[in-house]
Amino acid sequence: MDQRLTRYELELMNVLWKLGEGTVQDVCDNLERDLAYTTVMTTLSLLERKKGVLKRDKVGRAFVYRPLVSREEVQTNVVEDLRDVLFDQGVSSLVLNLLSSDESMSRADINAIRAALKDVEQKNSSKRQS
Q1: What phi and psi values does residue 16 have, to the nearest 5 degrees?
Q2: pTM of the model
Q3: Structural domain boundaries in the chain
Q4: Distance in angstroms (rounded) separating the CA atoms of residues 91 and 88
Q5: Chain segment 78-118, per-residue pLDDT in tens
Q6: Does domain 7-67 have CATH number 1.10.10.10?
Q7: What is the DSSP string of 30-61?
Q8: Which of 1, 63, 99, 125 yields a CA-CA distance of 20 to 30 A from 39?
């Protein structure tokens, strides 16, 4: 299953992740920009047949699409690709770049990052002691 998705494919997947499942019309109605029905239909079919990230079932006259992969799985693949390709497998470069590019970081975001770093430090410390 090739989970490398284009920005456009991610837009469609985002709608289905939010809805849980939906028809072509449901996806069209929930997109933030207007796209032709046939364009959405063709892309959803490609995501089902070639990329294997959607399942479709015939319900009445319409196909209902449902994600087979979670948002988190796709996020992990995208971040790994970014790290490997753009940041030469450097985790610190990737994280520092993300942090420096987001000027609107909330206190909650900062606290979540601190907690995640503390968790990583504890896991690494435990590994060294084993």
Answers
A1: -70, -35
A2: 0.78
A3: 7-67, 87-129
A4: 9
A5: 888 888 888 887 888 888 887 887 678 888 988 998 999 99
A6: yes
A7: H-SS---HHHHHHHHHHHHHTS--EEEEEETT
A8: 1
